[in-house]
Every structure is written in structure tokens, then in C-alpha cells.
User: What shape does this take?
Amino acid sequence: KPIIDEVDRINKIIEQMLSYSRLSIENGFDFVDINLILDKCIDAVSFHKQFKYITIEKDYADDLPYIEGSDIRIQQAFMNILLNSMQAIDNEGIVKIKTESLMETKQIKISISDNGIGIDKNEKKKIFEPFYTTKSHGTGLGLSIVNKVIRKLGGYCEVESTLGKGSI
Assistant: This one.
């Protein structure tokens, strides 16, 4: 059993590395509904037993425009953020997902917040760097993939965090 677990872990690392490298050459875009993608992510994580005491609250804007992007890549990015938020919560907690249409700048703002352990100031500067992780079994590619996907769409990522109170 330990050997199978390690093989699975190594396989996951290789998949993430390949995914990270493919992001720079990928071009297939469609028009996608961000709220629908976020719902798919919520559905996927709701089956994890380790998250059964975490409540996910949604506050979606009805007037979001569709954006041009890769449905699978955007879903992967939001899954990574959502899983990080949920893993930051020790046992019970709340993850809030909010979408907003910023009409004046023709942008969409997506906020994912948690009431988890928060991120140290020094770590916050490094979290989007490839291979940086604070997890014992992490690859350090999750948030760097998020950053790459969002930048490829013309967006950017910001992080606010307070130790012991959570992150946005």
C-alpha cells in the first residue's frame, strides 16, 4: 500500500509538471461561463470526505459576461484555489466564492476566501512561484498554474491574508 501511494503521488507530480509546461503552447479557447465553471469545481470538491465540515457559500453576479478561455484550464485553476482554501481550514470552516462584473473596466472579479490558517507575509510573496510549497506532499505547482492560466486570459491574481484569520 505505501508503494502504491508513492506511485500515485509521483504520477500526480508528473501530471502537474506536464500541465504547467503545456500552458505556454495551448491556444484552444471557447466562450465560457465563470459561474458554471465554479459550480463544477464545487461539485467536485463536495465529495471529498476531508472537507465534510466545510461550508461553501456562493455569491454569484447574474450579469457576468462570458469570457474567452479554455474551460478545462480555468476549471483547473479554480480547483487549485478552492482546494488550497479548503486545505487551509483545520476542521470546520467557511469558503466563500463571489463573482462580480466590473462593467467600467470590462473585467470579472472572482474572490475565493476562507477562514483558515492564513499565509505568512514572507510566504505570500512566493506562493505563485513554481515548486514553492509549504505542504509536506505538495508539488508547489498548484498556484503557479493558477497564475499562469489567469495571466494567459489577461487577468491577474492578488492575495490578502491574515495569519489565523484566513485568506482571500
User: Anything to note?
Assistant: Strands lie at 30-32, 54-59, 67-69, 93-102, 107-114, 161-162, 166-167.
